[in-house]
Amino acid sequence: MLNLFKEIFSANGYVPHGHCYLWQRELVSFHVLADLLIAIAYFSIPITLLYFIKKREDIPFSGIFVLFSLFIISCGITHLMAIVTLWYPFYWLSGILKIISASVSLLTAFELVGVIPFALALPSPEKLTEVNYQLQKEIRDRQKIEIKLIKLNQNLKRSNEELEQFAYVASHDLQEPLRTITSFTEILAEEYNDSFDNTAKEYLKYISSSSQKMKKLIQDLLRLSKVSHKSQKLEQVNLNEIVKEAIDFVSPSIHQRKINISCQVLPHIQGDKVQLTHLWLNLISNALKFNNNGLIEIKIGVENHDNNWLFYITDNGIGIDPEYQEKIFAIFQRLHSQHQYEGTGIGLALCQRVVSYHGGKIWVESELGKGSTFYFTMPKESTT
């Protein structure tokens, strides 16, 4: 190995390259200056390329930039070696440096062939400008649409608030004349009952029955309009007590029917007690009302999910056609006549409003003749 190094750095009787120029001062100086300037240029180019790569790490094909830098540096070294060999005939060393330069050059050329197809696929500056213009146009269009949506949402919110206010005021104001009608109907029935024939008495029954239905409708409308008001005080509510109270409330109207109600232990939640009472009252009442079986079976339970509680109430009632399972939550949406099943068509709309107010969702799964299961969620962050 030592002998090899000696051989590489040995003159071995070779003549320095300067002899070819007859040691003419001007000619030798001219070649030295030319090679030196080329070497300086070759060394400055890769420094600039490497600086560019460092500052722009997102630039594609950074590896080819590194190979170009090495290739240019090796070329610069060969020019410096040309200066050395003017005075020192280290031609073996010069040859080795040229071999190294040739190897780097070939590797760069090989890698460049593989990069060319990808480089050609890059969009031109004109294409990038066009794409950028289109993106900016899409952004402007979307911003305009967002502004319109915001305005529409504001208008819709204002309309809903005005509608809720109207429903509240109208329902509230309707109670007074309704009380008057009911009161005078009762007076007529008590004081003038003997003066009326059977037809008149039947008419009074119709008036009294319709007044009670109107009273129930007005009360439901008032409850529905109050749900969206955020001023209600939230508190810790024991749902077990709420469900028990709801069952006790509807029990007198169904005391002649056989009922089997099972209920799991339910969690406490942060909510509006009055609203939650109406929610469970409506769901339990519907499970009992829309059921023609000799034995009514109702199961109430809850599932513990990651971020929320999933409550459900299952019955063995008449069921709901899949076609109407989303429509039933709309206000005044009824699937049966008053003669078949009494109601105002507001109960499930009220349930949906209450669940939405508490940050949850409600839906139903059902088949005709096979009962229904109503599900609704409540976020855990508002429960204990």
TrEMBL record:
UniProt keyword Coiled coil present: yes
Enzyme class, UniProt record, top EC level: transferase
Reactions catalysed according to its record: ATP + protein L-histidine = ADP + protein N-phospho-L-histidine
One annotated GO molecular function: phosphorelay sensor kinase activity
Gene3D superfamilies: 1.10.287.130, Histidine kinase-like ATPase, C-terminal domain
TM ranges: 32-53, 65-90
Domain of life (superkingdom): Bacteria
This protein's name: histidine kinase
